[in-house]
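User: Could you check the structure of this?
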Amino acid sequence: MPSHKLFNDVTLTRKLISIGTSLQDSLQDIKSDYTAYEDIVFGKVKEGFLFASSRPLITTGAVLGVGFLGLKKTRQFLYYKSLRLFVSEEALLSRADAKVKELRQTVDILKFESQKLEQRAMKAEEDLIRGRTKLRQAGKQIQSVINSAYKIERQAGGLKDVLRELPSREASRFRTQVTNLAKEAKKERSALSKEVTKISNHGISV
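Assistant: Sure, the predicted structure tokens are below.
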């Protein structure tokens, strides 16, 4: 893989990690704010019941009240009803709007990066298909040359039989040339056969 592509992949990975971290931080902020306000409201109301429990006549009612407040839905109901005692509605709406915009921006960035990755994957797949097609075509051409090399070797063998009809001196000179040509053809055939094997090892039939 080229170095610039590797650099782009690392940069993209870091961006996605940063996006995920930002999204988690935003959600954690909202959760922390909710917990803090809820604890404040619950604590104030609970203090009132505990104070009332010091009066013998209302001890039973105080205990039941504290237990009632311990229910999750009850606490959430009191939280939303009493939250305006501590924070104005406009401030809450403004903060919620800011958080929503921040999350929307983060999601938009994530979608943009996802589209880039999808396009890159599609291009890589297309390149792979084109590459396999080119390898298959090259393999067939190589196989054709290998067949030609076989023919040259056979022709060289037949030519040696013809040379036997010539005088020994002339036959010897031509026989050496024919033998060398046959060796060269065999050497090329062997090298090309290795290339065909490499192509086949990639799962491409030739």
